[in-house]
Amino acid sequence: EWPPQLVTKTISTYLELGALGIFGKVIGDFFLCPLGLCKVIIFQREAAMRWAKGTDYAKNVVLKNPEVQEYIKTYPIPNDTAIPQPPDAHFLQNIVDITLFAGYLGTTHLVEKCVQYQTDNPSHQAF
User: Fold this and answer.
1) pLDDT digits (tens, 9 = 90+) for 75-91
2) What is the C-alpha separation between 32 and 74, in angstroms, rounded?
3) H helices of 12-86, where?
4) pLDDT value at position 65?
5) Dist CA 96 CA 103 (whole Å)
């Protein structure tokens, strides 16, 4: 299931800011948060999460899966979590974050690099 256009538009700038997440807390403390960009990333994550938790797949497949429920019980939410959430929502937020970072961001960069390589390589321009 693909998110609606409004959600897609909201998370589109994650391609620019989300990549900085690889540097973790350091980039947040010294660059993103002082410039107010943490709020932008959080807004994008929340938009993706609102959409994801409303899907039939999340409600009826993922969160009802016995292995997921066992995982949630085995690995409870840390006490120092910045944004308190119910356990199911915390699990789903982790899946959303993984999808945004590794799926959306990673796949988009991979495709961009492949297309650029084909464009720059004369032997591939016929493609």
Assistant:
1) 888 776 666 788 898 89
2) 33
3) 14-17, 24-27, 37-53, 56-57, 66-74
4) 96
5) 10
The pTM (predicted TM-score) of the whole model is 0.76
Which amino acid is residue 58, in one-letter code?
A
Tokens read off for 88: 């199911």
Whether 118 contacts 124, CB under 8 Å: yes
Please state, in angstroms and as integers, the Cα–Cα distance from residue 77 to each residue in 23, 84, 115, following that order: 23, 9, 41
Please give the pLDDT value at position 82: 66
pLDDT tens for 92-125 read 999 998 888 888 888 887 888 888 888 888 887 7
- Which helix H or strand E contains 6, and what residues bound it? helix 5-11
Tokens 């991979």 sit at which residue?
110
Q: What is the pLDDT of residue 77?
A: 82
Instruction: Return the SS3 of 85.
Output: coil
Describe the crossing of helices 37-53 and 87-98 by its angle, rounded to 10 degrees: 110
- HSE at residue 98, side-chain half, CA atoms within 13 A, is 6
Cβ neighbours, 10 Å, residue 86? 10
